[in-house]
Amino acid sequence: MLVTDHPDLARRRADRALEADRRLRQLFAAAVPDSGGDPREGGGLALVAVGGYGRSELSPFSDLDVVLLHDPSVEESVVREVAEAIWYPLWDDGVALDHSVRDTVQMRDAAASDHRAAMGMLDARPVAGDSGLVLGLRSEVLADWRRDARTRVEEVRQARQARIERAGWLAHAAVPDLKESGGGLRDSVILRALVATWLIDVPHGESEWLRSSLLDVRDALHQTVGRRVERLDADVIPDVAAVLGMGAEELDLHTRQIGRRIAHLASLAWRKVDDALAPPRKGTITSRGPKVLPLGDGVGVLAGEVIVTKDADPATDPELALRAAAAAAREGLPLGPGSAVRLARTMGELPDPWPPTARRHLVDLLTAGPGLVRVWDELDFAGVVDRVLPEWAPIRLRGSSSPVHRFTVDRHSLEACVHAAAIKRDVARPDLLAVAALLHDIGKGVAGDHSEVGEPMATRIALRWGFDAADADVVGRLVRWHLLLPTIATRRDIEDPSTAANVAEIVGTEDFLDLLAALTASDAQSTGASAWSTWRRGLIEGLVEKVRGVLDESVGSPDAEAYEGWPVHVPVPDWGTTGPADFTLTVEPHQGGSLLTIVTANRRGVMADLAGGLALAGLAIRSARTVTLGDVAVSLWEVSRQDVDPARLTERLRPAMAGDLDLAGRLELASIPDAEDARVRLLGNVSETATVVEVRAHDRRGLVWTVCDQIASLGLSIRSAHMSTYGDEVRDVFYVVDVDGNRLDGPTAEKLRDALAAALT
């Protein structure tokens, strides 16, 4: 909750403007005696207040933005004499003057070529001289602004984006700039300019109140420092807070909340601008109103936003919030603010622990990459985050005590998720990496060492979110040790064998080491350039490789059956005479989708035929488990669709199983722009009786078929397959044997690896 503003500070800003007005009028009257003592009569000359001064918003050390405006017919010598008679006394008074001299044509031309000049003129106010000259020019500039709005707003947008790249966001920057940061004073002025185009409207009262509240902070900052300054450094916050009658932490949070709300208003405003300028969407209007493009159960796209549909009920379907958020982040679209508010107000309680479907939607959201930040902010602003992660509140907008951090704790955690999503192919469990990235600093909201107090917090959260005890323990350990690698790498001799041995004892396994290394990189990159310098990165990566060497020496060869166990009993039918198209299929509801059990004759290529047939049937494969039982192959396929008709799917699969379809021609892998190449690894220590191949790749239609088809084309067989999907990434593991059912020799295994890598690239 924002505290109230300070009316006395706003009154002082207006009083400063009035005092400046009086002084300028005195000087103008003395410089233009023909005005007859009336400073409003200037004979084609006028003094104009623009910018903050034009809005009567003068902070203690603000510049005085003044233009000496004149009609083009006024002689240049006269204009020069008047200007000197006004500027020199002000300089002698020590006034911080931002001045210019222009005729009305020059002023209009400047406004036409420079959006900053145009916005300044939109707030222009006549101070002395020919007020008609000023009002006429302002009307012309405003008319030009509205006429050319389509191009002018794009100029403003591009300049704003460049400014925010430099100054960051007021709500999340480690050292916010009250004026330049996104959500700062410049953004509040831009809102006024956007409204002036007549393209959109914004809540005027709230916008003006927010700017006034932020100006109060700047006034107190000027008063404390004794000069013009815009950056709210940590060392001045206590003194600034004292001027405003607040505590230091209270002021920091208050300022960031203002910036957050201004940024949110700006985001909504720019989306309205886009809608206003966009050409009519063909086919989006029906007799019943705008057409909603469905994205999932209760989720759709309308006017470029992801929304919750009217028929959806968040009260009875609490997973709807996660489903909508994941869809928005995955599509790179904003989540509609109305839908976010509706979800926060009406969503029911998720059970403890969450069901697997809710956990999957959360992982999809956290692994979506850059789309996560905007969607999470909308959820947080509406109050949904408090419903799914109440532990977030103590770190929300919380500044960091470390000078190397460029973000608040909450934004830093989201940025860590974004960086983790970019390297999720480096780890076996991208879901655990994403959750650990989000929660690695969750302990900073309570007293104590944040790594130590964060471990049990993260473990409890992971359990609540539906992870099993082993996975939750991994998340907790990642949080506990997320500073281990940079601390050891920069403070110990990594060439000393005992250093790597000590770290290896803590991490335990190579999979955990990979997760910890990825979390370390994500944490450092979201902190700042100095935290991931070439030197630090080299030390950390060097340490990781040395620890990996220690772990490799200690790894045994586990029993293959521990990886290939079949958890269910499936009756094997007696087909009599079997052919390639003979199979049985059963369907049952499963975790928001369907579970298909398919029993067929065991033959080379059967997995490829099944995967191809399912892909052509339009089913997205979430995971699969397949084993061979003698002459029979039994497989479980988890697909995302709920309404699978067994009879219809059987008929769709039969041509694929009989070899009557050109699967290669119909399932050619689509290219993914800017996607990382697939990675294919041979896992040598997993099984003594089969060659285990792991595929890490971007999920897409035909992927499973491509892998299975390549294996079959080399005359090899799949003894079992274990496929899992994390967001848009797959982790598929295949146990492959030769024609005699034995593990592949070295050259054959390498040939298989290379063939799969080539087929998936």
TrEMBL record:
Needed co-factor(s): Mg(2+)
Keywords attached to this entry: Hydrolase, Magnesium, Multifunctional enzyme, Nucleotidyltransferase, Repeat, Transferase
GO terms, molecular function: [protein-PII] uridylyltransferase activity; phosphoric diester hydrolase activity
Coiled-coil parts of chain: none
Entry EC number(s): 2.7.7.59, 3.1.4.-
Catalytic reactions on record: [protein-PII]-L-tyrosine + UTP = [protein-PII]-uridylyl-L-tyrosine + diphosphate; [protein-PII]-uridylyl-L-tyrosine + H2O = [protein-PII]-L-tyrosine + UMP + H(+)
TM annotation in the entry: none
Role of this protein: Modifies, by uridylylation and deuridylylation, the PII regulatory proteins (GlnB and homologs), in response to the nitrogen status of the cell that GlnD senses through the glutamine level. Under low glutamine levels, catalyzes the conversion of the PII proteins and UTP to PII-UMP and PPi, while under higher glutamine levels, GlnD hydrolyzes PII-UMP to PII and UMP (deuridylylation). Thus, controls uridylylation state and activity of the PII proteins, and plays an important role in the regulation of nitrogen metabolism.
Domain notes: Has four distinct domains: an N-terminal nucleotidyltransferase (NT) domain responsible for UTase activity, a central HD domain that encodes UR activity, and two C-terminal ACT domains that seem to have a role in glutamine sensing.
Family: Belongs to the GlnD family.
Name of the protein this chain belongs to: Bifunctional uridylyltransferase/uridylyl-removing enzyme
Annotated gene: glnD
